[in-house]
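Subgroup meeting minutes
Present: P.N., E.W., G.H.
Scribe: E.W.

1. P.N. recapped why we're keeping a running log of single-chain structure predictions: easier to compare across weeks, and new members can see raw inputs and outputs side by side.
2. G.H. added today's entry (88 aa).
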Amino acid sequence: MATWQLQDAKARFSEVVDKAEKEGAQVITRRGVETVAIVPIEEWKRLTSSAKPTLKDLLLSREFVFDDLDKMIPKRGKLRTRKPIDLE
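Output recorded in log:
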């Protein structure tokens, strides 16, 4: 994983992107602190898809329990109505 200073990454952005495609994640630092990473799109999709289950996966999982629906659905407040307006 290569590290780039921000000013170098800005000046050579195409090169940073090319290296990310070929070699993997490229880390960009700001004032010596790792700030962001540029990763190939395949890796990004893999990371984001594995981070959150789909609704189908959630409903079919053994951890999902229908017994606690009262806790999952918030109570509705009382309906407020407006006072009638006298148009005469």
